[in-house]
Amino acid sequence: MDPASHDINLNSPSKGLGMNHAEGPSDVPAEGAVGNSPHPPPLGLTEAEAEELHIELTKVEEEINTLRQVLSAKERHAAELKRKLGLRPLDEFKQNLTKSWQDVQTSNAYRSASATLDDIAHSEAYKKTQETLSQAGQKTSAALNTMSSAITKRLGDMRNSATFKSFEDKVGNLKIGL
């Protein structure tokens, strides 16, 4: 090979591949070459430290993928065991909901809110408001009953009137004629 055809750029991804420049750059990076990245290392890191961090990152990402695969296999196995035991997803959901509700009830926030609501329910202001609303409800109910009775009486009077009977006769004749 002609020495002029060798890539002498030490940061080149094709370093050491002995490529012919007429073919164009290769998409295959050199294995283990420091500085494969087109970006310079972050401030405060040497190229060797950056490469070491890249290698560690690759290992950690591989471990994460392995753990995801193991977790997925365990979840499938657990689902199969539940199916064999006759546990349905709805049963599990009910158990989880019950457990979650128990956890909420024993939490400090729930206890504190519950105590505050109890204090409010036994306060004088709450009792007065409750009495006032109860009286207002009773008066409203009485007024609606009175109004209902008046409307019912008025409709009864109207039905017995000559105008309504004449109208009723005409409507009745229409029904018979159809």
From TrEMBL:
The UniProt annotation puts the region (Disordered) at 1-48
Instruction: Please give one Pfam family short name.
Output: TPD52
> InterPro entries recorded for this chain?
TPD52
List each coiled-coil range: none
Keywords, A to Z, come to: Coiled coil
Q: Name a GO CC annotation attached to this entry.
A: cytoplasm
Q: Does the keyword Metal-binding apply?
A: no
The family assignment reads: Belongs to the TPD52 family.
Q: What is this protein called?
A: Tumor protein D52-like 2
Gene source species: Nothobranchius kadleci (African annual killifish)
